[in-house]
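A quick word before the example. In earlier lectures we treated sequence and structure as two separate objects. From today on, think of them as two lines of the same record. Here is NAD(P)/FAD-dependent oxidoreductase written that way.
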Amino acid sequence: MTSSPVFPTVPRTADVVIIGGGVMGTAIAFHLAEAGVRNIVVVERGELGRGSSGKPIGGVRAHFSDPLNIELGSRSLRAFRDFPERPGADIRLDTVGYLFLLATDRQAADFEAGVRLQNSLGVPSRMITPGQARRLCPYVSTDGLVAAAHSPADGHARPALVVQGYARAAARTGTVLATHTTVTGFDTAGDRITAVRTDRGRIDCATVVCAAGAWSAHIGDLAGVPLPVRPVRRQLAFTAPLSPPAPRIPFTIDFSSSAYFHNSDDGLLFGLADPAQPDGFDTTWTAEWLELFRDVVRHRAPALAGMATAGGWAGLYEVTPDHNALIGRSAEVVNFLYATGFSGHGFLQAPAVGEIVRDLCLGRTPCVDVGPLAADRFRTGAGTRPESHIV
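And the structure line, produced from the sequence above:
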């Protein structure tokens, strides 16, 4: 890969500067490069994929309640399946399905409506009984379960491999990956950005794309574009190697508590969204969180509560007020585009969003109408996008 530490400064000019070298930034770079754009610079303050993209759970799904999220998930799933050929990398995709465990009649009714919508859009999800859920995932206790929702085409992949695959493909056509480079401001003229200022030099440019994840509000402030994104810590853990090995199970989610687990190498991965977690950029992993997970899971999957763990980590969700993405072009700064605020869905939607932002940059009509995801929806009184299938 062409990485800027080889050079003392960043390139002086670019057609497109992408801020953020995670899965979103590299996906956008790949799709632009594939479309023939040759003067692209990706600016990343650390190493590629070491921010939020370095620490997600890796889930890929089209099992959502909002049509836009279903479309973005479905299109991305197809791209993940095709990843070995385009752009050309093994991402360890495992299509084990998603399994949502539902404990109330209201949850079941909401998911039934979601399944009907998903089926109408080509997603092969289904409602199943608690007994069928246990057969899919033997760890599950059916005590108190009303129903479950199963989406067999979903699964999980390795985010770091996706970032590397996109970055290497983009670099082969000349994209510069300016790692260890921090954006410090913008130069403007009228309603346009004319240059991106960094701690390693200035880049004159025609278009800027913010794909900075949890750090996007700061970039938006520098550009004069409000991006309502807040950082929230999420933690996970890995079991020690299991003997006998764990059965191959779906990505299983206890919807009431948000506790989830799936296969990972020779053990399991555990996760849980702590509802008391304050906003902030702290990514310290805590043993107290693990005890919270054990307390929650003891009822729904008792065997997991006693499993030994071999470490864990914490990463950041980039959360918006309605837990849906911000995708679009600023009305005030007309050459500033953004793809951020995915609220935990960024990795799984990245391939489709890479295509969409490519088309927005090139003045094409995108494959999916993302007008309802414009960042100004919170200021103009436009309707927000409610999404109930949030993990």
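Notice the following. The chain has a mean pLDDT of 94. We will return to this example when we discuss secondary structure assignment.
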